[in-house]
Amino acid sequence: MELLRNFVPTSKAQLLQVSIFLNKGDLEKAQQMFDFYSKNLDLPDFDPIQPNWVDNTKSTVNGLLSWFRDNKDEIAQGYEFIRSVIQSRGALPPVIPPETPSPLPPINE
Question: For 3-19, what is each residue's pLDDT tens digit?
């Protein structure tokens, strides 16, 4: 009974399996127990299939891409704003660092 007290069914198939297990294979008692507990529950027939890591990754990437597609104008405006602020202040770092003389003389062959 302790198992039944903590049991939260997620599908009719799972409830039927637990009913058969608790009644030690007696199908009549299991069916009565199943009918008693399932009459007021709105359960799916089977447990939903859990997505694997590939499906999770695909849905995450699709979500990010759709967010970028939906907000591309705002992203471009933000990029242009930051770029214009940096250019107006003259704070752009030099792309190529100035060359410093080498402290060692070149090696003669």
Answer: 667 777 778 888 888 88
CA distances from 8 to 4, 41, 42 (A): 8, 11, 13
d(CA 87, CA 9): 62
pLDDT (tens digit per residue) in 6-52: 777 778 888 888 888 888 888 899 888 888 878 877 887 888 788 89
47 within 8 A of 13, measured Cβ to Cβ: yes
Contact 11, 46 (CB under 8 A): yes
Question: Nearest Cα to 7, choosing from 23, 18, 16?
Answer: 18
Question: What span, in angstroms and rounded, lies between the C-alpha atoms of 22 and 1?
Answer: 9
